[in-house]
Amino acid sequence: MDSTRKAERNRMVDQYIIPHGVKDPAVVAAMRHVPRHRFVPGEYSLFAYVDGPLPIGHGQTISQPSLVADMTAALQLKKTDKVLEIGTGSGYQAAILAELADQVLTIEIVEPLARQAEQTLAELGYRNVRVRIGDGYQGWPEEAPFDAIIVTAAPDHVPQPLLEQLALGGRLILPVGRDIQTLDLYRRTAEGYQRTTLTLVRFVPLVHPGGQ
User: Fold this and answer.
1) Is residue 157 part of a domain?
2) Which one is catalytic: 3, 45, 63, 66?
3) Is this prediction's pTM over 0.85?
4) pLDDT at residue 3 tops 90
């Protein structure tokens, strides 16, 4: 068996990613390249290239590949971009971002997940990713501004610190809501923020110990 599972990744992309409307060649290439099976617990490895979410422990999940691709494509990343991710989880989304951007900074509040993600990313050779353990709601102010910010858990409102840490022209994508969640894209302009609602989604809640 091919330990890299390249054929399965290509099948995943051909069946779930391209038909879903993702056309950015760089995003498609990243989805073909990053070994998703390395980011899921061993008992779920068989299902790594099915288009569905999977448990990763601690009440968290790894998102389905088509949603990862959709959110990544919406950010329209450039090789020079500096990206902030809130909710490292398994590290899979960070790896996809690392294929497309110059720097990826990612924050995870669940320490065991952060440590495991950091280890997996290092083993796979991603040197342009930095993992921090902490409250992602506050962002990473000392590293701001960011060209793009992606949130992979759902707050009940848009965290103001994340909007403030966007560079001019920067993009923020995140799920918002509790019972009903929308996937929203914000772009910072000279006049303020432009918001576009992309679709309905279902994410685990964003853990924010500080409340509002």
Assistant:
1) yes
2) 63
3) yes
4) no
